[in-house]
Amino acid sequence: MTSKPEMTASEIASAVAGRRMSALDATEAALSRIKQHDGILNSFTDVTAERARAKARAIDAEIAAGKEVGPLAGVPFAVKNLFDAAGLSTRAGSKINRDLAPAKRDASLIERMEAAGAVLVGALNMGEYAYDFTGENVHDGPSRNPHDTTRMTGGSSGGSGSAVGGALVPIALGSDTNGSIRVPSSFCGIFGLKPTYGRLSRARSFPFVASLDHLGPFARSAADLALAYDAMQGPDAEDSACTTRGLEPTLPLIANPVSDLRIAIAGGYFQKNVFPEAVEAVSRVAKALGATKVVDVPGAARARAAAYVITTTEGASLHLDRLRKRPNDFDPAVRDRLIAGAMVPAPMVDRAQKFRRWYRAQLAEIFKSVDVLLAPATPCTAPKLGQVNFNLDGVELPVRANIGVHTQPISFIGLPVVAVPVPLEPLPIGVQIIAAPWREDIALRVAHALEKMGVAAAPAPRGI
User: Where does the record place the region Disordered (predicted)?
Assistant: First the structure.
C-alpha cells in the first residue's frame, strides 16, 4: 500500500500500525510530493529528508519487533520555522536569525509529536518574526495558495497553510498571536486550531508577543486536528503559561452530538467589514447547526485596538537590540511597526491591559449562556499576492491591516478556536468556531459535525 495525498493522518497511522504500509513509504511519499510541488508553493524553507527517513526506519523496526507504536505512527508533519528543530537554525522568517547556531534540541511540541510516532519532514516558510498576515516573506519569497498560486496563503503561518492545503503533509504546526493559524486556514481551505492560551507548550519556539502567543496544528480534517492536538497536550515546566492543565483528550469526544450545544452567531462588530463570501460561509454554518441567536460582543473593536497596542509594544521590546544593530536586515514593513511600538507611551499600554481584563469578563458572561460563537475567520477569500488594498462597499481598506479584523479580538483573551473551511467557489473561506476557555473539545465537536454534514471540508488543491 502506498500513501496518497488524500490520505488522512488517521488513515496513515492505521495503515502503518497494521503493516499495510511502512512508515518509510509514507515518508518517501511526502518527500516526493514536496519535491514535486514545493517549487511552486514555496511552503518549505528546510526539508529534513535524512532525519525523516531515519525516524521512519526506526518506527518500522519497532513494528517488526512487535512493539506498540504511537497514534501518529508514520505520519509526516512539518513545522513553522519558529520552532526549534535540532540541526536547523530557528529562522522565525528572518534574515537575522540565520546567523544563529543550529538548535541542539527540538521544541517541546516536536518532541511530543515524534513521541506519538509522527515524522518531521521539514520547516516551513512564515512571515518575518510572525508579524504578518499575508504570507509574503521578503527574504524567502511568498508562500503560495494551493488553490490559486497567484493568491496569498495568509500569515504568518503561511507555509503551514500552504503545505497542508496543498496536501504535501497531512499535519503542520504553526503559531497564532493575532490570527496566524486561523487566517491561513481560511485562505488555504483547511482546519486549524488555536487552543486556549497556555494549553500547548511554547518551549523552544521563537516568541513574538509572550502574552498573546499560541501554538497549534493544521490538518485536512477535524479528526486529524484532534489527533495532533491530543498528542501535544500536557503541562510543561519550561513554559510558565503551560503548567496548570493535565491531559484532556478530545478525539474520543468529537463524534458526540452537538444538538445539546447552545450555538450563537457573533453579531455587531463581527458582521461588519465583511465581503459577501464571508457572510455566506457563516450563514451556511449557522443554518447547518440550527443557530439563529445573534449575540453582540461588547468592546470587540476596542479589543482589536488594544491587541494592536500590546502586540507592537511587546514585539518592539523583544527586538530592540536587533533594531539598533541591524535595522536594514528587517523587512521594512515589520521594522517600521516595531519602531512605532517602541514609542508607544506606557500609560497607553496600561490602559490596553486594563481593558483586556474588562473584556475577558464580558466574554465570560456571554459563555454562561452560550457554548459556541460563530464568526468569520477572514473578511474575504485570499487576496492576490502583492495586493495592497481591497474595496469594501466603496471604501478602500489596506489588506495587511484588515485581514485579521475578526481574529484579533478573540486571541486577545486567549479563547480556543477551530477555523473550519467552507468550500465556496471559486475559493474556500473559513469560519471561526469559538468556545469558552479550555473547551477545545466543544469547538472540535462542532467542527467534526460540520464536516460530517458536508458543510465544512478541505477541498483538493486546484492550483498545483
Answer: 138-159
